[in-house]
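go over my protein:
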Amino acid sequence: MFQLIYVSDFAKSLGGNDLQEILNNARTNNTKLGVSGKLIKVSHHFFQVIEGDEATVRSLYSDIKQDPRHENVRLITSKHSSTREFGDWSMGFSSLLESQQEYDAAFILSEFAKRDSFSQAHHQGIGLLLKQV
């Protein structure tokens, strides 16, 4: 099992239907490919966890980097794991800022999203936070 976490900025041209289209396509394609994960919308950023076969996950990430709906795509971390952490979802979704707890998480993730690179210490913290939202 291979897991990859990235952050990207919304493209300025991202419309209201684009998010639903991203989710629908991801859920359909991920089921076929044996991929699971979660997409988290924070302010004008996407955080995403993708897990599955390494070659498949890396190929999806390469496609995402070319997708015009994403800008400034940055890899946070990638790792091998013995289990899926998001195995219940072909693509789970959270949009933060709905409660005070989510506001706090959104603030922290928004601060991380401003970075161009991520230290080893950030990897675990971001991963744990994404599991909680």
Notes: DSSP finds four helices and five strands in the chain.
